[in-house]
Amino acid sequence: MTGQSIKPERRRTLRNHARTVSVDPLAIFQPTSCDEIVELVQRAEKEGVSVRAVGSRHSWSDVTLGPGYVLLPDGLARPLDPESHLLRPRDDASPEQLVRVESGMRIRELNRWLDREHGLALSNMGGYDGQTVAGVISTSTHGSGLGFGPLSDFVRSVDLVAAGGRRYRVEPEHGPTDPELWNPEHPDWELVQDDDRFAAVRVGMGCLGVIYAVMLAVEPGYLLTEVRKLSTWEELRDGLHRGALLDPERNRHFELFLSPYARDSDGKHPCMVTTRDRLTDRLPPWWSSRRRRNWLAEFLSGLAPTGQVIRAVANLLPRATPKFMEMTLNGLSDDEYTNKSYRVLNIGAANSLPAYSAEIGVPVDDERRHVAAVDRIIEIADEHRRIGEIFHTSPIALRFVASSDAHLSMMHGCDTMMIELIQLKGTRGGLEVLEAYENALYAVDGRPHWGQVNTLTGSHELVGSLYEQLPRWLDAHATFNSSHVFDSPFSKRVGIAAHRAGVSRTGVSGTTG
After folding, report:
1. CATH T-level fold of 79-220
2. What percentage of the chain exceeds 70 in pLDDT?
C-alpha cells in the first residue's frame, strides 16, 4: 500500500442529525473496502492522528466525535457472502439463520434486503431504522420486550480493523467459523474465538477499532400487531414485573409512554401502553385501516412545524405543558396496526420531531428499583415545574430489555428498564433537568446510554462502579487499540482511554507500547 490511494473529501464541519454536537475533523474519508480501512488506520498512526468511524450520526452524545480522521460508512453498506462453506455445521432444527453485512448498512436497508431478497427479518429492533448496523451494535441500542437482549446480542461474528491495521474476526468460543477451514483461506486475518473478547468488541463505542462487517442471527419473516391503549402510571406500576405485564409469554413486546405530570382531576399520571405480538393470520388488505397507524397522529408528527409549535407552547405557556402532553398521548393511541415486523417496530413519524434525549437503564428486579426510578423522575419533574417552571416537553418512554453478557452494555448482567427522557429541541432548562434525572438514578444503579445525552466522567471512577466487567473490556482495549489511534474526546471523558505521556493533541500516542 502507498498510503495515498484513498483521498479525503473536502473538509467540513460534521454535526449529528439533531445538530446538537459537532466537530471539525482534520480529514473526512469514505472507504469502500476493508483494505481502505486498513490503509487509513495505518496512515493515521504514521501521522499521529486519531481515527473515528461515524455512522448515521443519530447519537445525541459526543460518542461519534473525532478531531482526526473521520470515516463515513456510505461506501460500506453491502450484503456480503457469509462463506457458509467455512462455517461449522448448524443445527437444522434451529430457526436462526446467519447473514453477513458491511457495517455501514442502515437498519432500513438491512430490513428491505432481508425481506425482499430472502424472506427474513430481524427478531427485534429499536424504534428507529436510520442508524447503521455498527452504530446500533456499538452503543447497545435496543427494542422493548424482556424476551430480547439489545441488538448487539444478535451478533454472532465481528470483522474488525484494529491498531496497526490488523484484521480480526472476533467470535465467542464456539463461534460459527470453523478455524481449520477459515484460516487457510484468510491468512491476512486473525480469528479470535474467545468469549471475553467477543463480549468486549460487541459494545465498543468505536474505541476498539473500525468494524468492517458483522454476522447477524435473523429469522423467517413474520407479522406483528401493535395495540396502543391509554392507562395511568398508578394502574400499571404494580404489574411491571416478569410474572405480569413484562412476561414475554404475555406480551412479546411491551413499552409505555408516561407523562410525569399528574392530572388535576384525579391526581393520576397519564400513560399509553404499547404491546406488539405475532400475528399468525394473513396480512390485512392494503385498503384496511388495520394496515396503518393513527393517520392523523402520523400526519401531524411528520410535519416540520409541529415540533416548533409544541416547543413554542412549552416556552410561552409552560403551564399548559402537562395538558398538551396528555393530548399527545391520547392522539397516539390506536386500536390496531398490523404489518411486517420491521414496519411495526419502527415507531413512525414521531422520529421526525426535532428532539434530543437522555436514556438511563435501571435493573428490573424484585427490589423494584425500576419502579422507584420512575417515581423519582416524577418527583424531580414536579420539583422543577414547581420551583422554576421548567417542564419536561415530551412523554417519557419506558422500554424493557433482557440481560446481556456484553461487558459495557447498559443491560449487562440484569434485565433492564431503559428510561428514555426525550426533550424537544429548544426546551428551556431541558439539559439541566436531564442531568438531575441522571444524577438521581445513580442511586438505583442507573446506567446512562452511551449514545444519548449524559454527563459521565471517569474522574471519580463512576464508570467502573457501574460496570464490574470494565477491567476485562479495558484488557481488550489494550490489545485492539494498542496505538491509541481510536481514542477520542468521548473515551477520555468517560475514563475508558488511558492518559499517557506522549499523547498528541489529536489524541494518539506516538508509540505503540
Report:
1. 3.30.465
2. 92
